[in-house]
Amino acid sequence: MQGPSVPDPLRNLDLRPLPEDPERVLVIDRLGVQPEPLAVPLVFFLVAQHFDGRRTSAELAALLAKEGIRIDPGSVELIARQLADAQLLDDERVRARIAAMERDLLSGPRAATLAGSCFPVTADACGAWVERQMAQAGPPLTARADHLPALVVPHIDPRKGGVSYAKAYRELLAAPPADLYVILGIGHAGLRHGISLAPVDFETPFGLLPADRGLCTELVARTGDWLLADQLVQAQEHSIECQAVFLQHLLKHRFAVLPLLTGFGTEDTERMAGVFGTLRELLRESGKTWTVLSSVDFSHVGPLYGDAEPGAPLMGKVEEQDRLAISRLEAADDGGFWEAIHAHRNPTRICGYSSMWGMLQLVEPRRGRLVDYSHTVMDEADSRVTFAAMAFD
User: Fold this and answer.
1) Which tens digit of pLDDT belongs to each residue from 59-77?
2) Domain residue ranges in the chain
3) Coil, strand or helix: which one is 14?
């Protein structure tokens, strides 16, 4: 006899309201397991938010009744089946599919998913576009003799923040070339372990940007295969790809990259710190020169990010919070930086904190210097994102 149904939990999905139909929500799967956006009844998610893989449909129905949602166990099971058929639940079938897709992705290279949207497709057009951003940023800087250990660079859509990218890259071009560029991006779709390595080359309009396969292999050997999880997040993530385009066009010497994504969970700091400590040791053993690029944005405010009001009235609070975080970065104070973000539960949603904290852990710089600070409007509702460029010694 079959036992009671126990629905599997919902996957990490992007849910957006449908203004034309308030009874439904638009579901976007950032990982691409479900490739098409789906309009799903809102009640499905009011029910499914309680799915945890432990409670039966009868227990869930009783719990929902306490919240004023009257639904019988059979209807709970029907909702669970429909969500499972749409590959929106974290069930065995979806996990197996994700594992197969990630094995394929590890064979590389990582596709240029933003070509044609955030930057031009062809090498000539993309090169001309990058050069226009550099020209707007100002003339080349005076060459510096000492090594540049780290940069903070925006990962906002380059069409909106390309000049700020360029101001950061002027600092890089003024410094002696490095053998390796460690790119610390952000896993916006969520990471299972707080940090993820992509040991693959990156396609850009200029060809393949090579990863340092030897260092990647050794890092995995010293930390564990779990570091290779979340290749589907890597495949969709823009924060590394945006830097790959600028690096490959602007740098004329031979170099490689080591691409890492960092996550959002404060509970992952010990694991991330362990990886950064291992990587720092590995890099020192390699004898290579290396620079870390922390690919980040700062605050996210306005209706798109959950605020009831538009971004403009919030910008005073936003800049105060950003400047506090930047001051701690300038002081190379990793503990103070973490406190500046989390003391009040990150009220302006600074998304790049794990990457910047990781950069401080990895490089241990003496000080930082703000190169640029700006913001952009993201939509007609006046949602806004701030971003910055910084150089470190």
Assistant:
1) 999 999 999 999 999 999 9
2) 14-100, 109-392
3) strand
| Backbone dihedral region for residue 16 (phi beyond 0: left; psi -120 to 50: alpha; all else: beta) | beta
**Mean pLDDT, the chain, whole residue set:** 95
3-state secondary structure of 264: coil
Candidates 164, 161, 159; CA nearest to 117 is 159
Q: Please give the structure tokens belonging to residue 276.
A: 């950064």
Give alpha helix (H) positions in the chain.
Answer: 42-48, 57-66, 73-85, 92-105, 123-137, 158-174, 213-223, 231-236, 241-250, 269-286, 315-330, 334-342, 353-363
> Tokens at residue 54, please?
């432990």
Query: Directed axis angle between helix 241-250 and helix 123-137, to 10°?
Result: 90
- Structure tokens given for 76: 């709970």
pLDDT > 90? residue 142: yes
Contact yes or no for 314/203 (Cβ under 8 A)? no
CATH superfamily of 109-392: LigB-like (3.40.830.10)
pLDDT at residue 1 is higher than 60: no
Q: Do you find a cis peptide bond into 109, omega within 30 degrees of 0?
A: yes
Are the CB atoms for 141 and 171 separated by under 8 Å? yes
Residue 79 to residue 95: CA distance in whole angstroms = 20
In terms of C-beta density within 10 A (0-12 exposed, 13-18 middle, 19 or more buried), how is residue 63 classed?
middle
Q: Give residue 81's identity as a one-letter amino acid code.
A: R
**What per-residue confidence (pLDDT) applies to 355?**
97
Tokens read off for 13: 């999905």
* Type and span of the H or E element at 372: strand 368-377
Backbone phi, then psi, for 94, in 5-degree steps?
-65, -40
Residue with tokens 């850009």: 204
CA 300 to CA 38: how far, in whole Å? 25
Placement of tokens 């910008």 in the chain: 315
Tokens of 86: 């749409």
Tens of pLDDT, residues 173-196:
999 999 999 999 999 988 989 999
CATH number of 14-100: 3.90.930
Which of 162, 371, 189, 372 minimizes the C-alpha distance to 249? 162
What is the structure's pLDDT at 372?
A: 98
| Residue 358: Cβ within 10 Å count | 26
